[in-house]
Design goal:
Layout (H helix, E strand, L loop, with lengths): L1 E5 L3 H13 L3 E6 L2 H10 L1 E7 L4 E6 L1 E5 L3 H7 L4 E4 L6 H17 L6 E5 L6 H12 L5 H7 E4 L1 E4 L15 E4 L3 E5 L13 E4 L2 H26 L4 H5 L2 H22 L3 H15 L8 H5 L2 H4 L7 H10 L4 H11 L7 H13 L1 H9 L6 H12 L2
Parallel strand pairs: 1-2, 1-6, 2-5, 3-10, 6-7, 7-8, 11-12
Antiparallel strand pairs: 3-4, 9-11
Helix pairs in contact: 3-4, 4-5, 7-9, 7-10, 7-14, 9-10, 9-13, 9-14, 14-17, 15-16, 16-17
């Protein structure tokens, strides 16, 4: 079995690429970072440092790489069995044209073997969104063939993969936590789903997508935003602050109440899931900066993302949301000169004021009680 994986960054190499290679899948990485591509092709392998109570180093072997802007990628899409991505939500639209070209080449070659595409991104149903970008780039005459032979499979992914430590010279060095979760929608595959250890099949993906979004992503973001506000540098430092931990845990319990109402999760099991995530944030072997985790505040304050979506859920079910409101207010204070979205958010705040800015980005009604609550908390933090 052969797979093309878009994204040779830390998540691509440390998570999805590793799982595929461990399952004896022949993995070709596609990326634009020529230094990383050259290193992958020169060595054909790399090491992954898995850190936690049982730390160890795994070697990922039999891998190669191509430039994602080259025609090599188009040729690969015409022949591989699986395409995966870990490029970031904003990049999916950029690679759609290349995927479309590869599908045309695959069609014109008369290939009828199924191809499955899985976007492994920190977003809700990212593969379905990639599919729409691909269809937009694809002449209509190919649409029926794609519907018959190409599976666009949505997934939920969860593994903390921090950036390489400062001073690291090896372009392939990658560190990951022990925990990983890759859940895919088995109803969307064309043909038989591949047997890959670490990839779990489900016919109720949205329950797991929202469980991860409302718990790991919500808690991670709020830890980062409150951490930056309190002057902490890392996620570990922030979550060990008792005041921050109380709000983060409270927010995950509030979002968890939405999940329990919506999907019937068992309260005791969900409480254990929350505690497991808090322990992951405390991992002393992971050095994850609050500024990195908090980046792209416009996306994280949008209607379908980790702060506003669970907040809306509490409104739907008439549930408490005091801690989610505090986390959202802290997000409004996020700042980073390195993050274009943070600069754009600061300009919007300055131009429109907190109430209108929050309403514009989140989709919440400007005169609603919840916006009033969040803005009051934001002003109190000034």
């Amino acid at each position: 079995m052969k797979a093309l994986h878009f994204g040779a960054g830390n998540i691509g190499r440390g998570f999805i690429g590793k799982l595929l290679a461990d399952a004896k899948v022949q993995v070709v990485f596609a990326d634009v970072n020529q230094t990383v591509l050259d290193a992958l092709n020169a060595r054909g392998e790399y090491q992954v440092h898995v850190v936690g109570e049982q730390s160890h180093v795994d070697t990922v072997s039999h891998v190669s790489a191509v430039n994602s802007t080259s025609q090599d990628v188009v040729a690969l899409i015409a022949t591989v069995d699986l395409v995966t991505t870990a490029v970031g939500p904003q990049i999916l639209e950029r690679i759609a044209g290349t995927v479309a070209q590869g599908l045309i080449k695959r069609h014109d070659a008369g290939t009828v073997l199924p191809l499955n595409i899985i976007a492994c991104e920190n977003m809700v149903r990212g593969t379905s969104q990639l599919k729409q970008h691909v269809l937009k780039a694809l002449p209509e005459q190919y649409h029926a063939w794609v519907e018959e032979h190409v599976g666009f499979v949505d997934s939920a992914v969860d593994r903390i993969v921090p950036p390489a430590e400062a001073g690291t010279q090896d372009p392939l060095a990658v560190t990951v936590e022990t925990f990983s979760e890759w859940i895919v929608d088995k109803t969307q595959f064309k043909g038989q789903p591949p047997a890959i250890a670490g990839m779990e099949l489900t016919d109720n993906l949205m329950a797991f997508v929202e469980r991860k979004l409302f718990t790991l992503n919500t808690g991670h973001a709020i830890t980062a935003y409150l951490g930056q506000y309190a002057g902490h540098k890392t996620i570990r430092d922030a979550i060990l602050d008792p005041a921050i931990r109380q709000v983060v845990k409270g927010a995950m319990e509030e979002s968890g109440a939405v999940l329990i109402n919506r999907y019937g999760f068992e309260p005791d099991k969900h409480a254990a899931y929350i505690n497991k995530i808090l322990q992951r944030f405390e991992n002393p072997y992971l050095h994850d900066d609050v500024e990195r985790v908090g980046r792209q505040p416009l996306r994280k304050l949008s209607a379908g993302d980790r702060l506003i979506k669970p907040l809306r859920g509490t409104l739907d079910y008439g549930l408490r949301h005091d801690n989610l409101a505090k986390g959202t207010a802290a997000a409004m204070h996020y700042h980073s000169e390195q993050d274009p979205q943070a600069r754009e958010w600061a300009e919007l705040l300055h131009k429109s004021g907190p109430r209108a800015a929050l309403a514009q980005v989140s989709g919440l009604e400007e005169d609603s009680e919840v916006v009033e609550q969040v803005v009051s908390l934001y002003n109190a933090m000034q």
